[in-house]
Design brief:
α2 runs antiparallel to α3 and α2 packs across α4. The chain is globular, with a radius of gyration of 18 Å. It is built from ten helices and no strands. It is mostly helical and about 250 residues long.
Length: about 250
């Protein structure tokens, strides 16, 4: 997963961490509800990375050139490495990775089934838009995590190169055939709605995660802040659409 550098402005310097965000895993995990929330988060992320690997491998089959196919294969490999980092972490904290991922499989599988791209360009836009929305969501949560978990989460959200690759290919396609832009803009809007709905469903179905977001074990995160969080994610999406040369 990634949040491309050219899509959003650099964030303002964050205030010093407080509460759980100022603790390490050994200290923070003594709270059972926090531990459960982190296990859920790592499970959701791990399955997301596995799904991203599978999707990029499939997208490579649609690539119009051998160079494009090789580029996507390299990105798929990076996603699988992220998956391994997350499952290794779950094992290290004595949690079974498959059990941690299982609760999120259906929601993510449903999202990918409902948003199956019809061609190469739709696949690029889906990865760029959908993965970036997910990354924004997880980055928001990461700010409230203990230092050890936060470091891992941010590392697996590093850009695999797909963002800039998608922007280059989509903009070139629109320049060559302007009518493509309208179709892709509609597709991206649909992806935005589906991705946000999926994120909300995942949180709503898991008590520990929802408590983290609305102010239980996450320091200072209230319902009003959740609303602002989704506003920030929407704003970032608008900037990415502009980077693609599409209307939001």
């Amino acid at each position: 997963m990634e949040t491309p550098d050219n899509a959003t402005e650099a964030p303002e310097e964050a205030p010093a961490p407080t509460g759980i965000a100022a603790q390490d895993w050994a200290t923070a995990s003594a709270e059972p509800q926090y531990r459960a929330a982190v296990v859920d988060l790592l499970g959701a992320l791990a399955y997301g990375e596995l799904a991203a690997f599978e999707r990029l491998a499939e997208d490579a089959k649609l690539a119009p050139t051998l160079g494009d196919k090789a580029a996507l294969a390299k990105m798929a490999s990076a996603e699988f490495h992220h998956f391994e980092q997350l499952t290794d972490r779950l094992t290290a904290i004595e949690e079974e990775p498959t059990a941690a991922m299982e609760p999120f499989a259906k929601a993510l599988d449903d999202f990918h089934r409902q948003t199956a791209p019809s061609d190469w360009l739709e696949g690029l836009v889906k990865a760029y838009v959908g993965d970036s929305i997910a990354s924004d969501f997880y980055r928001e949560i990461a700010a409230r995590l203990d230092s050890d978990t936060r470091s891992l989460v941010l590392s697996v959200l590093d850009d695999t190169g797909h963002g800039n690759f998608a922007v280059e290919k989509v903009r070139a396609a629109i320049e060559a055939e302007p009518r493509v832009g309208g179709r892709l803009a509609l597709w991206a809007r649909r992806l935005m709605g589906e991705a946000l709905s999926q994120a909300q469903r995942v949180v709503a179905d898991r008590d520990a995660l929802s408590t983290m977001l609305v102010g239980g074990v996450a320091d200072g995160f209230d319902l009003a802040e959740v609303g602002r969080m989704f506003s920030r994610i929407t704003e970032a999406h608008t900037k990415r659409m502009a980077a693609l040369g599409l209307a939001a």
